[in-house]
Design goal:
The chain has about 60 residues and is mainly alpha-helical. The chain has one domain. It is built from 2 helices and 2 strands. Strand 1 and strand 2 form a beta hairpin. The radius of gyration is 14 Å and the shape is flat. The structure holds zinc ion. The site of zinc ion has 8 residues, from loops.
């Protein structure tokens, strides 16, 4: 199980192995998705942690 990706156009859940949405045919942003990040193991997790820290620091500046 690779999980699923939520279509950015129609909002439906599409199996992650599909290149495009099975409902509306929109191209799915695989390389930007959380599931594709986790697929790369520790490097994907590290990327998510860094991205999270950047988002948190941005929120700290705004708030
Ligand atoms: Zn769709």
């Amino acid at each position: 199980m690779e999980g699923s990706i939520r279509c950015p156009r129609c909002g439906e859940e599409t199996p992650a192995e599909n290149l495009s949405c099975i409902f509306c045919g929109a191209t799915l942003p695989h390389r930007l998705g959380v599931f594709s990040g986790l697929r790369y193991g520790w490097r994907g997790i590290l990327f998510l942690v860094i991205a999270g820290l950047i988002i948190l620091s941005f929120l700290a500046l705004v708030l």
